[in-house]
């Protein structure tokens, strides 16, 4: 078995591959694979002509982020000890993969790890996705060191440490391959967004730890596939968040969370109508409708601990939106 595969999921991302593959090939030690979600652009030909050393897995349709990785990694099962799942719009730095895998090998209690993720367009600033390590508040809302809600911090070296977190960002995350497959990977029903948080939640419930290592830096463009401020992304985030919480919390706890989230998000839908952004209001309502339609088919996650103890949530914030919007706490340090 080989140590690690760097696995990039691609869908119509020829321009992203042209921009970001040079750094991946220049600075990476381990095998690089591209899983292609049935792209209709020139991605496959570009790889064949310019990067013949990169191995490809060609899927027959677009399975999304979650399904695409599940389908592709199933073909690599048993060949590698670790996967580094890397977005196609990420620039990496020298020795990034060696350092990440060396840390994982020396810390076998951990199932996932992410580096410091900075913005590719403003490299002194954190990226929205993962930033300096991800947490969940008491209602399942994600936040990060370096990013609270929509407020992004500059990187001043405060988050150069190594800490336990609640989730690792799918923009660049190392996963223990055995644990990934044991837990059936991502939830393919999510299609895209929140799937890595759900997977990390299941890892923690199963007794595995998640870490952030700020000594390794990568740079993420973000929004290459779906704009962060799009109704479609809002729909997926809300629908998938409800599914994730329903799956991973007990019924009474889910009900309490659902009441709060439903109130906040329906008030947001009303606000969007007042602002003339009816497509965003519709995204909220559609997300709740579709969650309710599929709720009875969602299976509660039942972990197999095998002697391990459940790893509790690291975040210690009640409702992060309240702290950010009402109390004016715009940085992690203020929380």
Automatic annotation (TrEMBL):
Alphabetic keyword roster: Glycosyltransferase, Transferase
Keyword set includes Transferase: yes
Matching Pfam families: Glycos_transf_2
Organism domain of life: Bacteria
Residue intervals passing through the bilayer: none
Domain Glycosyltransferase 2-like: 6-113
CDD domains: GT_2_like_c (cd04186)
GO-annotated molecular function: glycosyltransferase activity
Similarity-based family: Belongs to the glycosyltransferase 2 family.
Official protein name in the record: Glycosyltransferase 2-like domain-containing protein
Species, as recorded: Algoriphagus aquimarinus
């Amino acid at each position: 078995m080989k140590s690690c595969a760097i696995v990039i999921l691609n869908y119509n991302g020829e321009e992203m591959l042209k921009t970001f593959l040079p750094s991946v090939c220049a600075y990476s030690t381990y095998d690089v694979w591209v899983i292609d979600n049935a792209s209709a652009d020139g991605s496959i030909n570009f790889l064949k002509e310019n990067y013949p050393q990169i191995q490809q897995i060609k899927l027959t349709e677009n399975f999304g982020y979650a399904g695409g990785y599940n389908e592709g990694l199933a073909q690599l099962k048993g060949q590698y000890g670790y996967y580094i799942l890397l977005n196609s719009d990420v620039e990496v730095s020298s020795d990034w993969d060696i350092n990440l895998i060396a840390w994982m090998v020396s810390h076998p209690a951990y199932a996932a790890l992410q580096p410091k993720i900075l913005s590719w367009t403003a490299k002194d600033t954190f990226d929205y996705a993962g930033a300096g390590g991800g947490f969940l508040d008491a209602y399942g809302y994600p936040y990060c060191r370096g990013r609270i809600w929509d407020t992004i911090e500059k990187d001043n070296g405060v988050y150069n440490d190594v800490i336990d977190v609640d989730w690792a960002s799918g923009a660049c995350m190392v996963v223990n391959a055995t644990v990934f497959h044991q837990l059936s990977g991502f939830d393919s029903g999510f299609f895209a967004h929140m799937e890595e948080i759900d997977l990390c939640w299941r890892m923690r419930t199963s007794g595995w730890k998640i870490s952030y290592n700020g000594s390794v830096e990568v740079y993420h463009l973000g929004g290459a596939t779906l704009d962060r401020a799009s109704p479609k992304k809002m729909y997926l985030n809300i629908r998938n968040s409800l599914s994730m919480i329903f799956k991973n919390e007990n019924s009474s706890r889910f009900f309490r969370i659902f009441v709060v989230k439903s109130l906040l998000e329906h008030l947001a839908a009303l606000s969007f109508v007042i602002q003339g952004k009816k497509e965003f209001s519709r995204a909220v309502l559609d997300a709740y409708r579709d969650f309710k339609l599929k709720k009875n088919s969602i299976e509660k996650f039942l972990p197999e601990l095998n002697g391990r103890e459940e790893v509790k949530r690291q975040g210690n914030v009640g409702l992060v939106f309240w702290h950010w919007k009402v109390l004016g706490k715009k940085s992690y340090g203020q929380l």
